[in-house]
Amino acid sequence: MNNLILATTIFILTYLIIVSEKIHRTIITLAGAALFLVLKILEQHEAIEAIDFNTIGLLVGMMLIVGILHHTGLFEYIAIKQAKAVKGDPWKIMLVFAIITGLGSAFLDNVTTVLLLVPVTLAIAKTLELPPAPFIITEILVSNIGGTATLIGDPPNIMIGSAENLGFMDFVIHLAPIVVVIFIVTMFLLKFIYSKDLKIREELRRKLMLMDEEEQLKDWALAKKCLIVLGLTVLGFILHQALHLESATVALAGAALLLLISGVSVEKALDGVEWAVIFFFIGLFILVGGLEKVGLIEMMAKGALDLTGGDIVILSMVVLWGSGIGSAFLDNIPFVATAIPLLQSMEAQLSHLNFMPVWWALALGACLGGNGTLIGASANVAAAGLAEEDGVFIKFTEYFKIGFPLMLVSLVLSAAYIVLRYL
Question: Which of 118, 122, 183, 416 has its CA 20 to 30 A from that of 313?
Answer without folding.
Answer: 183
